């Protein structure tokens, strides 16, 4: 019952990420995507910035294409994301809206977007990255929490559930792989939502890992404590970046082996937790990975090279399954 997913590249907002859309232009990319994966996550195509070019318009073209493609290939889809502090359009962030207007904007957005794909999206990242590293809510940066208060998060879950009662609704974040102040904050927050009867169904960790840090050995323990709350869990954006130290500025053999080991351990943690049934890597080829654009001097984070050669990490995942 477990699905193995990848992000579907396209629409990166970083200026050096402006290659032609792989989803429409790279047949090799598509062949791997259809053959190797059972779940797809739009990397950018369901974010506010992409769906909402202006206040009165929805642009569903890219998102629709992914959902239709997944259906044609017997894959499920993870929706990403509805309430976030990042990749919101300027008209929203810089607009002069009253609290009431903002609330209506979010409610209508969630109702429209989740409703459009009702019954066709397995899991939704309803709220993304709402906590800071210190375990406080990201109140300053997140327009919704700042303007409407933390109660808006519960409302977002309620609206999403009304629009699609069959979708599993998730809290999703990075640096919450292990047990730490941030994941502790999620644990308390999730407990609170569940006590209030809010339709929260899952907690997921993005798992953007780096060889510069030890593997979060308590990943499994962390997933398990959410499992014991009655929530499903998921790994949603796994990649393992590195500063290459091999010849010609490329990864060394040792680094590739270590990377494979991180991928294996992440998959094993998920396999060992009953309610962890969705395991997604944030792209499968270095050709389209977001990592070099966002992390200085780091890259090579996915399981295939930029020429679609399978790295040790690819085989490590296969063997572990
Ligand atoms: C990233 C995409 O991969 C990039 O293409 C885009 O330019 C920025 O966003 N956490 C998330 C994802 O939840 O949405 C982010 O995706 C990576 C970090």
From TrEMBL:
EC number: 3.2.1.8
Keyword Hydrolase: yes
Reaction(s) the record says it catalyses: Endohydrolysis of (1->4)-beta-D-xylosidic linkages in xylans
Root EC class: hydrolase
Family matches, as Pfam families: Glyco_hydro_10 (PF00331)
GH10 domain: residues covered: 16-320
Transmembrane domains' residue ranges: none
This protein's record includes keyword Signal: yes
Superkingdom, natural source: Bacteria
The entry's keywords: Carbohydrate metabolism, Glycosidase, Hydrolase, Polysaccharide degradation, Signal, Xylan degradation
Stated family: Belongs to the glycosyl hydrolase 10 (cellulase F) family.
Name of the protein this chain belongs to: Beta-xylanase
């Amino acid at each position: 019952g477990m699905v193995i997913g990848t992000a579907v590249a396209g629409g990166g907002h970083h200026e050096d990420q402006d290659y032609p859309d792989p989803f429409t232009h790279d047949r090799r990319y598509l062949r791997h995507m259809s053959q190797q994966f059972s779940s797809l996550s739009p990397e950018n195509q369901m974010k506010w910035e992409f769906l909402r070019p202006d206040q009165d318009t929805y642009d569903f073209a890219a998102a629709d294409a992914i959902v239709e493609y997944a259906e044609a290939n017997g894959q499920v889809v993870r929706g990403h994301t509805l309430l976030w502090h990042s990749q919101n359009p300027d008209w929203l962030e810089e607009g002069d809206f009253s609290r009431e207007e903002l609330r209506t904007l979010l409610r209508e957005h969630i109702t429209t977007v989740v409703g459009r794909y009702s019954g066709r999206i397995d899991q939704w990242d309803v709220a993304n990255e709402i906590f800071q590293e210190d375990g406080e809510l990201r109140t300053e940066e997140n327009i919704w929490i700042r303007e409407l208060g933390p109660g808006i998060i519960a409302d977002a879950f309620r609206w999403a559930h009304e629009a699609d009662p069959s979708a599993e609704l998730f809290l999703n974040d990075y640096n919450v792989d292990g047990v730490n102040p941030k994941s502790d904050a999620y644990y308390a927050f999730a407990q609170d939502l569940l006590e209030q009867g809010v339709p929260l169904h899952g907690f997921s960790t993005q798992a953007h890992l780096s060889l510069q840090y030890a593997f979060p050995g308590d990943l499994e323990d962390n997933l398990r404590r959410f499992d014991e709350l009655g929530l499903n869990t998921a790994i949603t954006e796994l990649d393992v970046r590195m500063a290459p130290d091999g010849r010609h500025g490329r990864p060394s053999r040792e680094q590739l082996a270590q990377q494979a080991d991180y991928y294996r351990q992440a998959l094993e943690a998920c396999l060992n937790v009953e309610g962890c049934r969705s395991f997604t890597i944030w792209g499968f080829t270095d050709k389209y990975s977001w990592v070099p654009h966002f992390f200085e001097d780091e890259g090579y984070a996915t399981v295939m090279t930029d020429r679609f050669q399978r790295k040790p990490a690819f085989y490590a995942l296969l063997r572990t399954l």
